[in-house]
Amino acid sequence: MSQLELKSEIQRLKEENNALILAHTYQNDEVQDIADYIGDSLELSRLAANTPHQVLVFCGVHFMAESAAILSPEKTVLLPAPDAGCPMADMADAETVREWRVKYPQATVVSYVNTSAAVKAESDICCTSSNALRVVRSLDAEEIIFLPDKNLGSYIASQVPEKRFHLWPGFCRTHHRVTVEDVEKAKNAYPEAKVLIHPECQPEVSARADFVGSTKQIVEQVGKLEASIFIIGTEMGIIHGLKKRYPQKKFYLLTPGLVCPNMKKITLREIAASLQHLEPVISVAEPIRTQARLALERMLALS
Question: Is the pLDDT of residue 127 over 80?
Answer without folding.
Answer: yes
